[in-house]
């Protein structure tokens, strides 16, 4: 069983390092999604800090329910 399969897709976003330091193909890592007021912005992700995560990580927006919800939240925040 892989790590990601053991976790609920409703609580986690799958991310992958854009530039792994050892040059190998990076593994996807599950990062827990929290509400902004409960997020520490370092080990968990929320709509406030996801932009910072995206600097280093490629986010699989369509792979889990949590990712799709977070994406929808961000899209709703965009002001013209
Ligand atoms: Zn956060």
Q: Estimate the helix proportion, in percent.
A: 25-40%
Structural class: alpha+beta
Total domains, how many?
1
The mean pLDDT is 88
Tally of contiguous helical segments: 2
How would the global form be characterised?
globular
Ligand roster: zinc ion
The total strand number stands at 4
| Radius of gyration based on Cα positions | 13 Å
Strand content: 15-25%
Strand order of the largest sheet: 3-2-1-4
The CA-CA distance between the termini, in Å, is 44 Å
Q: List segments where confidence is low: pLDDT < 50 over at least 5 consecutive residues.
A: none
N to C succession of SSEs: EEEHEH
Could you describe the largest sheet, including whether it forms a barrel?
Answer: 4 strands, mixed
Describe the 3D structure:
- The chain has 80 residues and is of the alpha+beta class.
- It has one domain (3-77).
- Helix content is 25%, strand content 21%.
- The protein is built from two helices and four strands; from the N terminus they run E-E-E-H-E-H.
- The chain has helices spanning 50-56, 65-77, and strands at residues 12-17, 28-33, 44-45, 57-59.
- Strands 3-2-1-4 form a four-stranded mixed sheet.
- It is globular.
- The termini are far apart.
- The model has no long low-confidence stretch (mean pLDDT 88).
- It binds zinc ion.
- Zinc ion binds next to loops.
